[in-house]
Structure formats: C-alpha cells, structure tokens
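re: that complex we talked abt at group meeting.

here r the seqs, copy pasted straight from the sheet so there may be weird spacing, ignore it
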Amino acid sequence: MNDMRILERDVDTNTIKIAARGVQVYYGDNHAIKDVDVDIQDKTVTAFIGPSGCGKSTFLRCLNRMNDTIDICRVEGDIHIDGEDIYDKRVDPVQLRAKVGMVFQKPNPFPKSIYDNVAYGPRIHGLAKNKAELDEIVENALRRAAIWNEVKDRLNAPGTGLSGGQQQRLCIARAVATEPEVLLMDEPCSALDPIATAQVEELIDELRQNYSVVIVTHSMQQAARVSQKTAFFHLGNLVEYGETGNIFTNPEDPRTESYITGRIG
Amino acid sequence: MALGLTGYVVLAIILLTVAAFFMARSRAKSTAGGDIRLLHSLPNYYGYNAAMFAAVPAFGVLMIWLLAQPMIIENSVFKLIPERIVSEGSSRGLVMSDVRRVAEGLDIAVARGALTDDEAGSMRADADDVRSILGGVGVALGSDVEPEVLQAAQQYRSKSETGTFWMSTTVVTLALLGAALAIFVTNADFRARNTVERGALTLLILAASLAILTTVGIVLSMLFESINFFRLHPWTDFFFGGSWAPNFRGDSDLSILPLLWGTLYISVIALLVAVPIGLFAAIYLSEYAGPKTRSTAKPLLEILAGIPTIVYGLFALLTVGPALVSIFGRGDNGLLGVDWMSGATAVLTAGLVMGIMLIPFVSSLSDDIINAVPQSMRDGSFGLGATHSETIRQVVLPAALPGIVGAVLLAASRAIGETMIVVLGAGAIAKFSLNPLEAMTTITTRIVSQLTGDTDFASPETLVAFALGLTLFVLTLGLNVLALYIVRKYREQYE
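got the structure back, here u go
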C-alpha cells in the first residue's frame, strides 16, 4: 500500500452530528446490520469501508430512512441527528431526506434539463420565492459541485446527455441544492473513470466546509484520500471506527488489518 | 378414384420416409463399425436427413401438382364449351362448376357400379338420361345435361385420371430417389447434423414468410377490390362527399367522411374513458400496491381483456344504453328530467363500453412501461425529499411518457378497428353531429352491413366495403407504426 497518501487532516470540530446506538437491520429473516454504535461528526468526511455485502450501504441508507422504501426491511435501535430521533413516529421521512441528502452509486439524473434537475429539490420544498432566486440557487449548487463552467451555456440541455463524471457531479449539485446538513454518498465514484473520480474527490473535500459527509467506498485508497474518520464494517458488524490515519497505519482489530492489507475481502 | 389414389400416394411417401429413416440410421452405424463415436453426427441425424430427402421434395411436388392440375385441366376443357352455353349459364365459373359436378357424378356412379368405366366415357347426352343416372347415385343436377357439358365432363375425367396417374408416379419416384440418394451418401464422414440444421432453418423461414405473405395477400385482395370499386364510383365522392346513402338500385352516395367522423368521435370518447382509468390503475399497481394486491388485482383487470367484444356489445345494448337513457332521456320520468336521448344506441353508449374494454389494454402496457423506469430514478427523487406522488408526477411519468403515448396510440388503433361494440351500441345512422347522445355509425359497422345479406359483388354498394376496409387498415397501420416507433425510441434510453 505504498501509493496510499495518508494525510493528517484537521478535524475542524468535534460536534456530533449523527449518533447511532444499537442499530439492527433485518431484510426479511436476514440480519444485515448487527448492533452498530457510531458517532459521526459534523463538518467531517466519514468513510465506511468493508467487503461487499458487509452492510455499509444498508447502514448508510438507515441515516435518511431510504430503507423505508423497501418493504421487507426492518430497522431497530436509535439514530439521532442533532439530538433528534429520526425513527420517531413524529418525524416525516420526506422532511428528513431534504435535510440528509444522498448521492447514489450510479449517476441517476432525471430525464429533464440540467436546470430542472438541480431545481427539482428547491421546487418541491419551496425554497425559492421567485425565478431569480431559483436561478441563484441553481447556479450556486452547480458552482459548488464544480460543474458550472461546463454546463452554464446549456442549462436547458437534457441532464442525461452529459458524460458519466458530469452526471455524477450534476447529481451532487442536485443534492446540494436542497441545502442538506448531511450528505450521504453511496460509492459515488464506482462508475467513474480516474479523472472524474479525482474531480469528485476534490469536490467532497470542499463540501466538508459546510456539511457532514458520509461516503461508502470500496476503494481503500479513496477512503484514505478523502476521509478524516473511517469505519470498517464486516459481516454486518462495525469492527473498528476511528481516525482514518490510525485505521490505515495502526489498526487495532486483526480483521481490519487483514482487510486493508488485502488478506480478506 | 382420384382421392383414393392420392391417399395411397401420401401413405406410400410416409412409409418410404420411415423406411429411409431406419435404413440410413443403420447404414450410418454399420459404416462406423458399430462405434457411434466415429460418426460425424449422432445416428438419428442420418435418419432425419434421409427422411427429409424422401419426404420434402415428394410432398412439395405433390402439393404443387394438386393445386396446378385442376387449373390446367379446366383451361383445356373450357375450350370445348361453346359461347352459347356460357352466355346462358351466365358465367364461365358457373359452367365449369357444372362440368366438375357432372365429372364427380360420373366418378361416383362408376364407384357404385351403376356405370362401368367404359360406359361413363362413351355416354351420349342425347341417348342416355344422364340426369336420372346421376340422380340414382345421389348426385342431384339442376337441369338436363347439355351434350357439350357432358363431353367436357368426360374429357375432364379422363384428363384428371391421366394427370393423377402421372402425379403418383412422379411423386413416388421422387421419394424413392430422395431416400436412395440420402442413404447412398450416408457414411461416417457425412455431415448429417449440418444438413438437418439447414432443414430446420428452412422450415422456420418458410413459416415466417408464410405469415408475411398472407398479410400481403390480404392487402392485395383488398386493394384489387378497392380498385374495382373506384372504377364504378368516383373517388372524389368517396373521400370528399358529404353523405352516406347506399341504395341498392344504384346511384348511391358513398362517402367515408360521415363514417370516419362517427368512428373518430366514438374512439375519442373511448380513449377519454380508458386512458385516465387505465393509467391510474397502472400507477397504483406498479407503484403503490403490495405484491399480494398486485398478484390478485392484475389478473382480475386482465380478465377484462379476455371478454369477447360481442359480450361488451350486449352489455352496451342492454345495460349501459338503457341506463344512459334513464339519465338523459324519458323527459320528466328520467333522472335529469330532460329528453335528450331517445334510444339506447348512441355515441356515448358505444364510447363508454369501448373505453371499458380498452382499460386493461392501456393499464397493462403502461404498467410494463412504468416498471421499466429504473429504480435509481425513484431513489434519486426520494433521496431529495420528494413524496411518492411527487416522484411519480415529476420523475416517473415524464420518464415513461413516450411509452405511455405509444400505449395510447395502440389503444386508439384498437378503438378505431373495433366492430362488435359499435354494431350493437352505436346505431346505424351516418351523420355529422356533435351530440354524443345521438346514434351514429362507424366504418366497421358499415362494412358489416354492406356485406351481410344478399350481395352482388359487382355493385359499388358492396365493393365500397373493401375501400372502407382498406382505409381503415391504412389508418390503424399508420397509428401502430407511429406507436411502435415511439415505444422503441423510448426503450433505447435505458438499454
């Protein structure tokens, strides 16, 4: 693992954004997540790593209740965001998802224009009073997703006509446009080439200024490059969680060491 | 006994085929010295190959011969019949059918022993009472047989006999030759498997081209009859005239426009019923319903598609029509106290029932199309905090729209071509009217009424049915092509 750049980055704050306690997830009879406790800090990039099927994506989808859309899925335990229990009956999952944005593995722009793709969230949540404000929100979101210069002349072109990397940045812009507090990213670079991946990673680092970012990734190099905290999942258990530098250089659990050195997974 | 001989020939070919199969198979085995691993193909393939060679050319020639022989014989026999009989018997076809009937009668008489073969060949119409002899064996003739007709029938008989003899010889020889050839080439290195493969391919291509040729044949027959119609009737009246008033004494107004108006009006009402209901049902079933509801509701909805349209027609005539009359008609006794509707048959009746018929059509096509929208689209929308119905309205339906438009167009082409519901539900009056409570008529209804009953296939009043049919065909074909084009274009987006 010589090519791994492990940078000591400052963790700007120690405020806990998301606190999960005793989280269990079942798919029908299958126990997918076993008793996971984790504290995710604000304005930090947290990476979830682990072999396929270890439950990292499932756990990520618990954080904005996307698992609610799957009929056979059942979640137990407590997840608090800013001290509020998101599985409380009074919490509207639709409102929650506006606060906890998500970017998916495969770029999934809607079959609409680039502008309408970004304006989708602000429109359904009524974030803009008029067209001028909406224009501003769209422009800011596209700028923050580092794609503004590439698309500013063709905002009315369909979003599906962009290249894969551009589509993924468009999806990030779309998520950013609703002003979320947490941004969940489920393997956002797995369908991208190295150049687009580098652009997205750079973007993630910038997004850290404003959001708490949680990223699921298969690439340990990527986790090392972009995150400050890393959690290693294995067979539905959270094996180890800590500073990214520590996890990669000095793992405590033998399973973590086996995984990052390539012996398992 | 033409039929009998042909039957024996068929039997002979089948026997030869079976024999060829076993002989080729055992020859293949013996050339390999009993070790089938040395053969190029499995032993059965050599058998199939020989069977193919024995049966296919023989049956092919048999079929062509059976089709061609009567035509050739009729053409040569027809020369014997003088002009006088043809003009009396009104047409060549009728006279020839007399000839065939007498010839068959003679065959039967010979078979029953009422006549000997020689007697049948040498009978004279003026000397023997042909009619009573044939009547005695159960062949009833309408009138006494003209000498020329009898002579033609005798010619016909002898020629068919010779023809059938030669046919049998040729076909059986072909089968023998084919079998012999296939058995001769059978050895361990012969690639029987590949030959059989080519045979299978040919069979499939034949089936496919037969289906296409039938379609072409149907279109051509409609085209020729339509051309006949336009020879007898001005095309300007058909396409641009204003009224439909067929009159079997001639001089009718035969314009398609009032019929087209009725057809389109009823179809539009049907689509106004079917599209919203079908689409909403599809959205519920594909987006909201649980797997249990879905697995019961979907087949139930599709039962609607299996109901014969005549039953829908009865439903229109006996249930929907009277119900509508009780709402919109009967003056003070009606529900609304108005008298707008006099009879059960009306545009609205037919349109409503046709709409019900089209619901499963629209819903099952739309359901497939909505399911084809990738789940990632929905996830993306949910992930941004959209509700389920917002997601459907703003993401799923726009993504599925081209496909849904295609489904609607397919439904429209079915509505335009629908017959039984409008025959029973729409009425028979051809007119331009905007009132949906009046009876109107459609293209399909008029085709039915122009062709049923006593018809003379030479008058424009009958031939107009073909021109109507052709127009209808072009109309629905155009809609189908457009719909398929749109659906296909949409599919390309996600694959």
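couple things i noticed - Residues 192-232 of chain B form the longest helix (41 residues). The domain at 239-491 of chain B is CATH 1.10.3720.10 (MetI-like fold).
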